[in-house]
Amino acid sequence: MMNKLLKFTSSSEQPVIIYEDDTEDEKEHFHRTYENNQEVLHKCGSKCTLQRINEETDESKHQTSTSSFTRKQRPFGDSLKVKMNELVLKMSKLDVEESLVWDEYVVLQNEIDKIETVLESFLQYIEAVELENKTRVRMCNQLRSVFEMENFANLSPDMYHVLDKLSNNVAEKNVFDFKEKLANVLDNRLGLGEYYRDYENRKHDFRVACGNFKRLLTTTKLSEKQLSKFSAQYDKISDNFTHCRYVLLKKLPDGVTMGVQIFLEAIKEIRKEIDNSFAAMKDLLHLFNVMGTLEINPDSPSNI
Length: 304
Prior knowledge:
Elements: E1 5-9, E2 16-19, H1 24-147, H2 157-168, H3 173-187, H4 193-219, H5 224-291
Antiparallel strand pairs: 1-2
């Protein structure tokens, strides 16, 4: 028959069972064994825990040291990379800005181009009128020398008067003075020549600088000092370019205004010359109508 269970003591590490018929020595032995086991387990657990804590502490120190080393090593590389990215972004931003500003520039420039085109046509017309006037005067002078021959002795005095008038007819002096003014205005791009030249020069420098810096950033290992130097150079070139572009854009409306004023002045001067040319052409037409009815004198010693 199984002994009656007197006491059951258990822990997660070690169970202790005591029965009713156990002797006092056996019971004491079991108690001592249980307490010793508990003490050993406790010490072992503490030691293991301490060892585990020490291991975790060492690992943490190692990770902290490694992390600290990484943080100490990163700033220079990260700073250089950030500056390089900032410079790339700055160049990209200026490219986008140039494209947006160009839209406004194109609108104004188209207006100037239209005005310049019509003013160039006016200039060509005035030059053609000047050539026509000189040719007409020269032709009438030569006609007079022919009419003085005996073959045309029946030419009426009125026709000589018309020839004299046409020979001395000179186009309005004002229109030829205006021609010089118009030519100067066109040569100077409606007063914007200096600004155009400065813009084109600065734009060329800016494009070259962008190309050079992009190549440096992608193909050359730069130090932080070198990058700062190149960045300062780029900033100076880009600032000069954006400033001259700003000035040009501000001046373009003035160019349009000047172009319109010259256009209206040209209309007035050309209208005067058209009136003068029209009167001269009427006289010349009358002269040629009369010349068409002339008869050669057969008794003249000269024969044409």
